[in-house]
Specification:
The protein is of the alpha+beta class. The protein contains eight helices and nine strands. It has helices at residues 2-20, 37-41, 48-56, 60-64, 76-80, 86-90, 96-104, 114-123, and strands spanning 24-26, 29-31, 69-74, 107-109, 128-131, 137-143, 146-150, 156-166, 169-174. It has a seven-stranded mixed beta sheet with strand order 4-3-9-8-7-6-5. A two-stranded antiparallel ribbon has the order 1-2. It starts with a helix and ends in a 7-residue tail after the last strand.
Length: 181
């Protein structure tokens, strides 16, 4: 009985603590700053393709780690913009290295919230270049007050939801998959 009371009290404390956090809603679910990037992403209905890809690539453990990481997270709609068959092809075991490369191209070491990104863009006279975990570069700029990513192929993606805080970094939801060379 005492154990049950203790467990109930512990569960209430977690719920109360989470209710006290400043959350952002993404994909119909609250994203909690006390949860890591993967713990938050799995709850977003808008990021099921990304989560499946991260798991298939074996990167879930890494992105659950200490970090900090900045993740530019393509939505399901972003993946749907890719040519037919692209996602299915990437999820095949023989495409594992290509999938890892694509996914790590969306990750930057360090925690860069929107204010830091905007400040860096301003100090860089309208452009700030980041090096991704994959090793490629992405140019960041501003258009109509939103951060725009320009990939290695000069294609662009816009941050749709910025500053989704996580315990090991920050997530920025983007509207288009960025592609390395």
């Amino acid at each position: 009985m005492i154990t049950l009371l203790f467990l109930s009290a512990f569960a209430l404390n977690i719920t109360f603590a989470q209710k006290m956090e400043k959350t952002v809603e993404v994909g119909g679910a609250a994203m909690y700053p006390s949860k890591n990037i993967i713990q938050n992403a799995v709850n977003s209905a808008d990021h099921t393709t990304l989560v499946a890809a991260v798991k298939a690539a074996g990167l879930a453990e890494t992105l659950s780690g200490e970090g900090p990481f900045t993740v530019f997270a393509p939505t399901n709609a972003a993946f749907e913009k890719l040519p037919a068959g692209t996602v299915d092809g990437l999820l095949k075991p023989e495409s594992l290295e290509k999938l890892k490369g694509l996914l790590t191209y969306h990750v930057v070491a360090g925690k860069f919230d929107a204010a830091a990104v905007t400040d860096a863009i301003t100090k860089g006279n309208g452009k700030y270049t980041v090096t991704t975990v994959q090793g490629g570069k992405i140019d960041l700029s501003l258009k109509d007050g939103k951060v725009v990513l320009t990939d290695a192929n000069r294609a662009t993606s816009t941050v749709a939801i910025a500053d989704v805080a996580a315990s090991n970094g920050v997530i920025h939801a983007i509207d288009t998959v960025v592609m390395p060379k």
